[in-house]
Specification:
The protein is mainly alpha-helical. The protein has one domain (2-109). The protein is 84% helix and 0% strand. The chain is built from four helices and no strands. It has helices at 2-25, 28-58, 60-65, 79-109.
Length: 110
């Protein structure tokens, strides 16, 4: 599941950047066509941030060692590393929720 999260994060971020670039080049008619895609990808990024934050908070050891477990024979992160991973997870959850609220407000205004 964690590899899927990273793949989704990377694809969504790349698509978001491409659509934002096209958005700045678009005429007003094209703007109306691009806006839903930009919003959808931005929402996907925020949901992904929330999911990663929940994963980091619930299972900090696996989140901390993700992608690095093969480097160590018996990997065991320190207690401070686990605490900081949980703090990072809480931060991601807060950023994701604030981002979703901003997108909700922005979609009504623009």
């Amino acid at each position: 599941m964690s590899k899927l999260i990273i793949i989704l994060w990377s694809v969504a971020l790349a698509l978001f950047l491409v659509l934002v670039f096209l958005w700045f080049l678009a005429s007003p008619l094209e703007y109306r066509l691009i806006k839903p895609f930009v919003l959808a990808i931005a929402v996907l990024l925020m949901i992904n941030a929330i999911v990663q934050g929940i994963w980091s908070f619930v299972d900090p050891e696996n989140a901390f060692l993700f992608g690095q477990r093969w480097l160590f024979k018996e990997a065991r992160p320190s207690e401070s590393a686990l605490v900081l991973t949980r703090v990072g997870g809480i931060t991601l959850i807060i950023i994701g929720i604030i981002g979703l609220l901003i997108l909700l407000i922005w979609s009504k205004v623009v």
